[in-house]
Amino acid sequence: MSDTAIATALTELVGVRTPLVQTGMGWVAGPRLVSAAANAGALGILGSATMTPEQLRSAVREVRSRTDAPFGVNLRADASDAGERVRIILDEGVKVASFALAPRPELIARLKDGGVVVIPSVGARRHAEKVAAWGADAVLVQGGEGGGHTGSVATTVLLPQVVEAVDIPVIAAGGFRDGRGLVAALAYGAAGVAMGTRFLLTSDSTVPQAVKARYLAAGVQDVIVTTRVDGLPHRMLRTDLVDALERSGRAAGLLRALRHASAFRRESGMSWAGLVRDGLAMKHGKELHWGQLLLAANTPMLLKAAMVDGRTDLGVMACGQVGGLIDDLPSCAELVDRIMAEAHATLGRLTTAV
């Protein structure tokens, strides 16, 4: 492990050695990856949306058995059992709670009262201003380059907007993989960077090797945005399945959605009523018809088919645009050390140039 740490408002807030965050990817960010990222000096985040509450508690305890470093849990703020998951975080003494959507003010207050650092993810300046006013400790800003559900504004445009709008630490996400990107984000005023695809493509990730090989073989043009998986813009690798989804009509999509909704209900232990409640929460503020709400059930099971079962022909592979530039599988320790060494070398070159 190198000693090339960089102290920022993020490292001081959460107690990690480097201003790097491994994002809470469903089916990917499990105990092995999270503990490896934490031991390497980054902030590892468990992806809990695809876990039952019992699995989440077990995963938190497994991470703690593997590392003494701080780590976090990512939650869906609109999930019907969000309160139960918050209770687990409080019971187990988790350091950080991150959210894919803006959590309610009372949820933020409950976590902060328990000593948990709250870091929501946002894709617009107004959302950052809202959660900052509600008491969030930091905010993660994802630009359109980011994998999974994403927006249309590039990180280089969105990040400075948010940095200027809020007075809490800002973490940049979308398009980061190396030390040069970290320095660029710091220059914009960020307190660190968050990476999903880069940590997915490590030797510590449990994603099957055949799936990792598909990622490594992809170029930048092979990473696309589609709305045909769940009705919302979703950045992923182009595959035959994605092409087929793009061509399919609404009736075929509805049948597929029902099939996957049933499978996810069995996998998660949720009731049909719970799925409907979560669907209504997703619908709030979005122009989605009921067929698209059912399509949302595609996402967990189609991701699981690839990320867990290794079926690239039956699943989808969320991917940041930067995935087209990644060509190796280092360990988390090797990756973090390399990024920090590159960051210091870049800062050195800039200092010399000035």
Automatic annotation (TrEMBL):
Statement: the UniProt record of this protein carries the keyword Oxidoreductase: yes
What the entry lists under InterPro entries is as follows: Aldolase_TIM, NMO
CDD domains for this protein: NPD_like
Q: Name one GO molecular function term.
A: nitronate monooxygenase activity
User: Which UniProt keywords are present, listed alphabetically?
Assistant: Dioxygenase, Flavoprotein, FMN, Oxidoreductase
* Superkingdom, taxonomy of origin: Bacteria
Q: What is this protein called?
A: 2-nitropropane dioxygenase
